[in-house]
Amino acid sequence: MPNPHRRIFLLQAAGLCAALATGAPAFAAPALVDENDSAAKTLGYRSKAASVDAAKFQKYQAGQRCANCRFYTGAAADAAGPCPMFPGKSVAADAWCNVYAQRT
Fold first, then answer.
1. 41's torsion region: left (phi>0), alpha (psi -120 to 50) or beta?
2. Residue 5: pLDDT band by 50, 70, 90 thresholds?
3. What is the pTM for the complete model shown?
4. Which residue from 54, 52, 74, 68 is spatially nearest to 101, judged by alpha carbons?
5. What domains does the chain contain, in order, with CATH numbers?
6. Residues 52/93, Cβ–Cβ less than 8 Å
């Protein structure tokens, strides 16, 4: 005679596996840094490096962007990634801030 408890367990396990396979990721990506955030303003963060005011930030040079900064820890193909200058948030790969340091 089949064990009804085993059958119920297998059905529940199968349902759980299906739910986990089709469910949304458990972790949401960190929010992007807002240019109006106080830390962003202090560091001269711009979400598009091309929009940096070179007269105000004389350190800026064309081609500098978060994706090639040594502090950016996102993958090369990522549109955004973590930076220790903005804990708990992501910076755009095409962004720039005054802490920029060329990755070597």
1. alpha
2. low
3. 0.72
4. 68
5. 30-104 (4.10.490.10)
6. no
